[in-house]
Specification:
The chain is mostly helical. Helices cover 77% and strands 0% of the residues. The radius of gyration is 24 Å and the shape is flat.
């Protein structure tokens, strides 16, 4: 419990530091938001009135605390690009698509990584391991956006399974999810195979073999349980990366998610929207990493014991 409280406090402090740095950075680089909203034809009186309405006449510290209060209350400001539409509404409208894409990608990653890792541990021949190593190296080396382009050409243009550049619903997320999943599954396979190899050399595995347990049974019931623990950290990083916005993939497939929204905000210099999305991405990464750390500590008591002994 002490570790969980300590980790949660650390996460909260990290998020607060990110908000401070983000607020200062955007207030330094964005120039005069009133001029962006009104344009160059506005009079000095109109610009001054809008600055006062936007709270720009306050000190930097006062504006930060006002912004933080708005964050906690859900008032994230209005978008400059979308003609004053609330930022919170824009994000909430795109979030379900990004969440579904993340969950589907995660499902594909697990479906690919776990069976392939177990197959590579075949005792009688090294051929499966060599083949899997070859394809794993290719999977890690190919960027997901390039794989997405190949999928568009093969499954969209040639085979016509979907219409390239057109998003009609959640069914169109299958191939983007696969483009995300393949490289990440290759990374997870590499870590999981390494952990499985280490566990197969352990005393408890040799004991299971001596009792007559078959190789696949030992892998599935004994080695895999412990081998999964180091891979949870990698999986957590993958989930955070996908959920925070697979920006390039969403652009390639024209998916109306958080990533495409961020790209549009950057191209139009929509600073209220960019600022909120940066905080959102930071929060997701910190939250997932904190959750993974706590989960690992709860699953494997040996980690807690080792840290206590080090103290």
């Amino acid at each position: 419990m002490h570790f969980i409280i300590k980790r949660l406090i650390s996460a909260v402090l990290t998020i607060l530091l990110v908000t401070v740095l983000c607020f200062i950075a955007f207030n330094v680089i964005r120039g005069d938001p009133a001029s962006v909203v009104l344009g160059t034809t506005a009079s000095a009186e109109q610009a001054a009135a809008l600055r006062k309405e936007m709270g720009l006449d306050l000190s930097l510290a006062a504006r930060y605390f006002q912004w933080m209060g708005n964050l906690f209350s859900g008032n994230l400001g209005n978008s400059l690009r979308f003609h004053g539409e609330p930022v919170s509404g824009l994000i909430l409208s795109r979030l379900p698509v990004s969440i579904f894409l993340t969950m589907l990608s995660l499902l594909f990653i697990l479906i690919i990584a776990v069976p392939v890792s177990l197959m590579s541990m075949h005792r009688n021949t090294k051929i499966p391991g060599i083949i899997i190593n070859f394809f794993t190296a290719i999977g890690i080396g190919i960027p997901n956006f390039f794989l997405g382009i190949i999928f568009i050409w093969v499954f969209g243009v040639v085979m016509r399974f979907f219409m390239p550049g057109v998003y009609s619903g959640y069914g169109d997320l299958v191939f983007p999810a696969l483009a995300i999943a393949v490289p990440n599954a290759a990374i997870l396979i590499k870590f999981l195979r390494s952990s499985l190899s280490k566990e197969l050399g352990s005393d408890y595995v040799r004991t299971a073999y001596s009792k007559g347990a078959g190789h696949f049974l030992v892998l599935r019931r004994h080695a895999l349980r412990n081998a999964v623990i180091p891979s949870i950290t990698v999986l957590g990083m993958i989930i955070a990366e996908i959920l925070s916005g697979s920006i390039i993939i969403e652009k390639v497939f024209s998916i109306p998610g958080i990533g495409l929204l961020l790209l549009g905000a950057i191209s139009s210099r929509d600073y209220p929207l960019i600022q909120t999305l940066v905080v959102y991405i930071a929060f997701i990464v910190i939250f997932i990493n904190t959750l993974v750390d706590i989960l690992i500590q709860l699953i494997d008591p040996r980690i807690r014991m080792e840290k206590d002994l080090q103290k």
